[in-house]
Amino acid sequence: MHQQLFCKVVTNILGRKTAFFTSVLAIAIFGMACTPTRESSSATQPNTSQSPASTTTGEEEATITMAVIPWQVSAEQEKKLQPLSDYLSKALKRPFKFEITKDYETAIDLLVKKKVDIAYLAPTSYIEAHRRDPKVEPLVAQINKETKRPWYTAVIIANKASGIKTLKDLKGKRFAFVTKLSTSGYVVPTVHFQEIGINPERDFSSVIFAGSHDKAKQALVKGEVDAIADDRRSYTDQVNEGKIDPKKYTIIWESVPLPSVPLVASSKVSVELKDNLKKALIDAPAGLVDPTGGIGVGYTLVQDGDYDIVRELQKRVSSK
């Protein structure tokens, strides 16, 4: 099934076959996607005369719950996600609901403790969940609307009025990260700060952890900080929505491409439901809002090894 779904998303969504992560990262993120995997071995099992519904134990009637990290103000994010919830409920023929958590830690806890079926996590958050329960599994990741590829970038955004034009100008300024479990909002920019000799605790006048990408941007707009770490698409979306005036703010640094935010299954989820989720999301029509609150253009299959680059970056932050 991995082979069929991967090839379908490459031809139907991207419009042509393409090799992921062969340029900047020199990593073939999806090199294994069209080859047999551990999960695909289930396809070799003999078929039975029973239908999928008759082999389950009431799973087909239970509500599927997805925990989502707080990218935006929860009430706004929840409203935007309703069409996706309706689509998945229809595609899976089961009730479906989102649970937008108060922070990244809560989303991880709900997944690991099997209180939700699936979760939408930042790459760093997924790695933490996998560390706590190696049986949690990434299923799909979003395809970036701008690049049409399954990656995104971290950025540092500064208030032009603060006089910040380069990263060196951040010294003595007020700065906001998202959370230490955010890849673009903490891990990646922190590694780059290490590389250029900046120590936020020592060199910035103040450092806060806003808790979500949305709150970090709010702090910037309100003048509570001079610069923030963010996800480029999250910033671009708010510019396009008229919430941020691009004449007042500027991107002073952008990272290399990073593997996209994954949808992760709890270890309690059956192989059948995992496969159905993958198919439903890869078949999803373009234009549905994805769990981050942005307009999606599709999903593609991912596996644990796709996030090894983030693991390496995380180790560098942890060892400082």
Key descriptive features of the protein:
disordered N terminus, 320 residues, five-stranded mixed beta sheet, 13 strands, alpha/beta, six-stranded mixed beta sheet
Folded structure, characterized:
The protein is α/β, with parallel strands linked by helices and 320 residues long. Helices cover 35% and strands 17% of the residues. It is built from eleven helices and 13 strands. The strands form three sheets. Strands 2-1-3-12-4-13 form a six-stranded mixed β-sheet, with helices on both faces. A five-stranded mixed β-sheet has the order 8-7-9-6-10. Strands 5-11 form a two-stranded antiparallel ribbon. α4 (104-112) runs parallel beside α5 (123-132). The termini are far apart.
In short:
This protein has 320 residues and is of the alpha/beta class. The protein has helices at 2-12, 52-55, 74-92, 104-112, 123-132, 183-195, 200-203, 213-221, 232-240, 271-282, 308-318; strands at residues 64-68, 96-100, 118-120, 137-142, 151-152, 154-159, 174-177, 206-209, 227-231, 249-254, 258-259, 262-265, 299-301. It is 35% helix and 17% strand.
Indicate the low-confidence ranges by residue numbers: 2-57
Strand order of the largest sheet: 2-1-3-12-4-13
Mean of residue pLDDT values: 82
Instruction: Please work out how many helical segments DSSP would assign.
Output: 11
Describe how the helices and strands are arranged.
Elements: H1 2-12, H2 52-55, E1 64-68, H3 74-92, E2 96-100, H4 104-112, E3 118-120, H5 123-132, E4 137-142, E5 151-152, E6 154-159, E7 174-177, H6 183-195, H7 200-203, E8 206-209, H8 213-221, E9 227-231, H9 232-240, E10 249-254, E11 258-259, E12 262-265, H10 271-282, E13 299-301, H11 308-318
